[in-house]
Amino acid sequence: MELTQAHKSRKQDAYWENLVQGETALYKAQALDALVAAHGPSAVDSLLDIGCGTSDIALHYLDALGGRRLVGLDYDAAVVEAAARRYDDPRLEWRQADIFELGSSGDRFDLVFMLDMLHEVYSFYGRPNRDVAEPIDHRLGQDAARRALAQVAAVVAPGGGIVITDNVLCPDDVPVAVRILNPAARQSVDAFLDEYPARCMAHRWRDADTLELGSHDFCILLTQYNKLKQADPARWNVEKLEIHQYMTVGEYERCFGELGFALHATVGTPPDASAEWAGDFRIESGMPGLPDKRITLLAVKAG
């Protein structure tokens, strides 16, 4: 099955409810508020939400910043139709479109949101022939993410900004040894390594509880294993098709610098994830400690 069709079919109500609630959502909102307050554009008239989903966060900023117009864009017609039914507000416009169609648009926006969605571009376009049966090629995925950001940059008004939330790769890809601290985590890691179709991970067991693998693969594992551990099929069904980490902070900096944007970023781990990881894993060698999970960034266009 072509990947986008498989992805659309799996995004049921339980998936959306999980995504916009809980400590991670609160962490993301707090980081966004601080970045927009410190570095956001002085005047916001038009906003764009790419991969809009429910658009809850973009709608908050439409009101908070006194915006006149919000365009919600998603490649999934069902998402767009549901949003159009849900809201009766003349400030809102909903469009079904692909991110790679943006560059030809005559629109200009003061603030563009890409909230936990650019990894989907990486995951869809990073597969040879966009085939769900194929693992993701990191080089193809990074190229797609950079091309997508160039499309988005073209519709940002001078002085405007791009907001991204997502998971982040640790700075260097080095061999690490990780001790797994309890049976539930070990069982989930085993299932993940056996079942994850998006990445074939080179790894070996040093002993019964110590796993050796690359640090970038470990970042990916940390994001995904708990969907199995927590028996959360709504999330796992969708996210086993994806990789959420596609750039390091340095790669974001270089990419946005080439596009004429100044980058402001916050990197960290929500408290619930940090506590869970600390209870499940200990770094034995290769890294100073568990990596950061998330990046929240605001890139501001020269203007």
Main β-sheet: number of strands, strand sense, barrel status?
Answer: 7 strands, mixed
- Could you name the CATH homologous superfamily of the domain at 3-167 and 242-268 and 292-301? Vaccinia Virus protein VP39
Determine the mean pLDDT: 92
CATH architecture of the domain at 3-167 and 242-268 and 292-301, by name, is 3-Layer(aba) Sandwich
Structural class call reads: alpha/beta
Output the CATH class name of the domain at 3-167 and 242-268 and 292-301: Alpha Beta
Strand content range? 15-25%
CATH topology of the domain at 3-167 and 242-268 and 292-301: Rossmann fold
- Order of strands across the biggest sheet? 3-2-1-4-5-11-9
- Summarize the helix and strand pattern as letters: HHHEHEHEEHHEEHEEHHHEHEE
Number of strands: 11
Helix content: 40-55%
Tally the helices. Answer: 12
Unreliable stretches covering 5 or more consecutive residues = 14-18
Question: How widely separated are the two ends?
Answer: 44 Å
Structure description:
By secondary structure, the chain is of the alpha/beta class. It has a domain at 3-167 and 242-268 and 292-301: Vaccinia Virus protein VP39 (Rossmann fold). The protein is built from twelve helices and eleven strands. A hairpin with a 4-residue loop joins β7 (203-205) and β8.
Summarize the structure.
The chain has 303 residues and is of the alpha/beta class.
What is the topology?
Layout: H1 3-10, H2 13-19, H3 23-39, E1 46-50, H4 56-64, E2 69-74, H5 77-86, E3 92-96, E4 109-115, H6 118-125, H7 138-153, E5 156-167, E6 175-180, H8 183-195, E7 203-205, E8 210-214, H9 215-229, H10 233-239, H11 249-258, E9 261-268, H12 271-280, E10 281-285, E11 294-301
Parallel strand pairs: 1-2, 1-4, 2-3, 4-5
Antiparallel strand pairs: 5-11, 6-8, 6-10, 7-8, 9-11
